[in-house]
Design goal:
Length: 217
């Protein structure tokens, strides 16, 4: 989908001109809400320490923020509210939310630092790739992208759940071993989708450069 100078979008292959939606819409508002919830979540998670009440509060904010991600995407697609602002802000909000969760849990000693570092490098690397090729188009979604995101959120929620002492002792080490196994699988899938994004970005940039050269000639 491309834009013309009159504030319309042109649907690729259809020649239809559609009024560009305003940036002030419900989908973008939910994205902004998610951005605002990130520092609140981080503060509750890290400042709460061993407090079960604070941990549950942090988990509740994380879940609400994660739900807004699903809702704003659905609304944007269903009601044609996709905007350039939303296309940039939405993935940044997602990565900030999960990034703060990974870092916070690592600071608390509940999640391996190496896993957090690898995942953050992949996530923000992909964000930089998006900006690198943005004038040539938008990188198409990786086939494993949704699985990667679902696994990350599930792992983070599982690590955040505050188990009572008696329950924690009863399920350990089986619970811990299961979580660690799923975490490793999540890291592997995250890296694999990152490699796929790199390949797609390079192909998109080459295509865009080739198109520009042909137009210039």
């Amino acid at each position: 989908m491309s834009h013309d100078d009159a504030g319309f979008r042109v649907r690729a292959g259809q020649g239809q001109r559609v009024q560009t939606p305003s940036n002030w819409n419900i989908a973008n508002a939910l994205t902004m809400l998610r951005l605002l919830l990130v520092p609140v979540f981080g503060w509750l998670l890290i400042s709460g320490g061993d407090s079960v009440a604070w941990r549950w509060a942090a988990l509740a904010v994380f879940v609400v923020a994660s739900i807004t991600d699903q809702v704003d995407g659905h609304l944007a697609r269903k009601h044609d509210l996709v905007t350039d602002v939303g296309a940039v802000a939405d993935p940044i909000a997602d990565k900030l939310l999960t990034g703060v969760a990974f870092v916070g849990l690592s600071i608390l000693g509940e999640l391996w630092w190496w896993a957090t570092i690898v995942i953050l490098l992949r996530e923000w690397g992909v964000t930089l790739l998006r900006f690198w090729v943005i004038r040539h188009g938008v990188i198409s979604a990786s086939p494993g992208g949704k699985l990667k995101t679902t696994l990350q959120i599930a792992v983070l929620i599982a690590y955040m759940v505050p188990l009572p002492e008696g329950v924690a002792e009863a399920v350990n080490p089986a619970w811990g071993w299961t979580l660690d196994t799923v975490l490793v699988a999540t890291v592997l899938i995250t890296v694999a989708t990152g490699v796929d994004y790199v390949a797609r970005a390079i192909a998109l940039r080459r295509e865009g450069t080739s198109r520009q050269r042909s137009q210039a000639s």
